[in-house]
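Discussion board: Methods & Data

I've been asked by a reviewer to show the raw model output for two of the constructs in my manuscript, not just the figures. I'm not sure how much to include, so I'm pasting the format here to get opinions. Each protein appears as its amino acid sequence followed by a line of discrete structure tokens. Is this the kind of thing reviewers expect to see in a supplement, or should I convert it first? Here is construct A:
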Amino acid sequence: MFLGFPPQKGKNLIKFVDTGQKVILFYDEKRSTRPTPLALPKFLKIDESFLVGLGIYLGEGSRNRHPKVTNSEPLIINQAIKFFDLFGIERNRLKAWIQLHERSTASLNEVRGYWLSNTYLKPKNILYVRNKKSSGNASVKKFGVLHLEVNSILLQLLIEGLINQVGSIVKNLSKKKIVPFLKGFFAAEGSVGIAKTGSVNEINFTSTRANEREMIKKLLNKIGIVTHNYNRRFEVRVFGFNNIKKLVHMKIFQYHPDRDIKLNQGFVKLQSSLKVL
């Protein structure tokens, strides 16, 4: 777990204390404002929660400040919470705020109630709801976008190390374990293309980082899905009936219900059109 973790932050040394089943990380510094220690499992299990959470964080997480995941989908927020659980973050340390578009038809109480009913968050976790002003007629999320944060320098350093090693982590995954990682990443950065007929015609993954697009391409190819690059729009594209069928069957958008419904309805239309032909 600790490969790539820096020995210090600035001038402050970071120490590891092995207690048997856990490892305690803390600043070797005597001051009242030193960061809260992390109590981490001695061995990190590369299971579904970790892989889905890692994929989501790569797509929706902050990379240059304290750990933060932003999304409008409660399932994604819940997986992010589970991801933070793995690193010993007590849920009372989670801080959240909601960005609500001024054209939303939901009241502030409805918005808070929605997030409290559909996530693991408690009333004390949600600090406030902030209204967002903007021009244009773009569609808005009725219940806003939730920003989930953890104020922990040590967790920030740990996640930075994981992100730097993600290529090595996923390179040797079995085909079975590739799937939850892809589900997390596609929940964050995937999209579904629908033709005028209502049929799904492609599934896309978007990232401005070329190394991430190449990683996703290799993982999809490893499980037998053919991909195509569209570098002008920073996309990895999947099209063709057999390729789309495989992604439907693996429930690639399990953690993003809107896209999952869109994909499944589009695939039903695609199947029907092929039968007609």
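Construct B, same format:
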Amino acid sequence: MQDYYQTFAVEDYQKDEIAISLILGQIMNRALPNDLRLLNYFKEVPICFAATIENVEPGLVKMTVHHTQSIAIQSQKMSFLKSSHLPHDVVAKVQRLRIAKSQVVFTQFSFAQIRSERRENVRVKVTEAVSVDFRSGKLLVRGRLDDISSSGLTILAPAQPGCDQILVGTVYFALSGIAMEVPATLLRVLDVDGAKKYVIKLDAGPKEERLVSQFIFQIQTDIIRELKERA
């Protein structure tokens, strides 16, 4: 989850939490207009709804949230708080969640930089089995598509020697039954749960970008439908 954000201190974490609580208390007491929104990511899709603050205590804030948001909160065990009254975005952990009443108690408030909002392109997690090959000279990385955007993708695959540098090559995969061959660059390799995640930049043409966009849109539609069905 830390991939989504990075916390930072303005003064120190304890003083920052007090300052955040004071602002949330002013919103609750209507000393400030309530423009509070919560942001979560459910399978990479942003879920953002307004929230109502019910109670503020030292280190604890109780809110009533949109029911769809509560499902996303349950998945992530945290949420981002966004308001024009806050000097920065805030991340808060869940202490207690009652989905039936759409109520959540947050704790551990910190200022945060939300990395995922800095992405230029929408990225989605891929749960269906999509095989991907990356070839660069004699090197072959063969694995499963993990996530994708119009500008890049990641592959989960076994470790391969010779991947400790930037490599230019080609990726081969199929979306919705249509085979694609796209020039690509292997940027880096990450360790993920005993496997390797290969981060690849795509140099897609208009046709490939259109197919990827259609694939992403369909995944987003399915994810929103899943959230609504859970709610």
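Answer (T.O., handling editor elsewhere):
This is acceptable in a supplement if you add a one-line summary per construct. For B, something like: The longest strand covers residues 178-192.
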